[in-house]
Amino acid sequence: MPMAKKNLSIIIVPHNKAKSRNISLSEKAVKITMGIGIFVFLVLTVFLIDYFTMSVTRQKYRALWDESTQQKTAISQYQQTVEKLQTTIDSYENYAQKLNIMAGLKSEEVLEGEPGIGSGSSQEIGGTGPPQAMDIGNLNDISKKADRITKNLDTLTTFFEAQALQLASTPTIWPTKGYMSSPYGWRDDPFTGKRTFHHGIDIATSNGNPIYATADGTVIQARTDKIGGKTIKIKHMFGYVTVYCHMSKFLAKVGQKVKRGETIGLVGSTGKARGPHVHYEVQLNGKEKNPYYYLLEE
Fold this sequence. Notes:
CATH superfamily of the largest domain: Glucose Permease (Domain IIA)
Order of helices and strands: EEHHHEEEEEEEEEEEE
Number of helices: 3
Oligomer: single chain
Largest sheet: 10 strands, antiparallel
Mean pLDDT: 79
């Protein structure tokens, strides 16, 4: 006799007075139902695990994104600081170069590259290109340059402390307050348009402004001529001579001893001049020098 099929009966007894219901399932149906249930359970389990894993991953990603943003901000701030430090170091280097010239430790003829331009010039400081990326190499270069300049300035400090008289007799300040309208060297003559050599620098300023002696010395000339107009020449110690042209009025006389910063005349446009300015020259042992190298004030 064939074996009877095994069935699973489920009796549903309602709470009300309705008749109970009897559900009969075959063994095969029970296995299929259990299989589907297990499959659904596994799928839900995998889904939940994946969901929580993705949630944790998203939290980590947000944390990393926030950290990256903070790091980018910090790097940008560090880069700006380094750029400011580079500018400061360059200005100290320029300043040290001028001091070296005055101390006779490094002549202007062998300076590497062009000197920096300060606010006394018609040219602008710096470039317009994008800032360079900050790296360890740049920081090391800045550090080495700073150490080199520090040692150089220490040497110069010792030198000038022992040479206070030489410093007082060396032209170091602007002869008047204004801006450099024409530098030392070759230029187009403002009157003829021809290429001529300009033996000093022109400092444009307002008519009547004071003109100062740029170092301690003695006035050896105060005269008026067709080219320089009212001109004063001062002799300093250690071979220095300075010349100031186009004055509107003399406030010092020949033979008078003057100190650095003392007013010797007033700005004008006498002689061959298109407007009020001071034509300023520096000579050392009878040779013309570029006055820019003797302007410590920027």
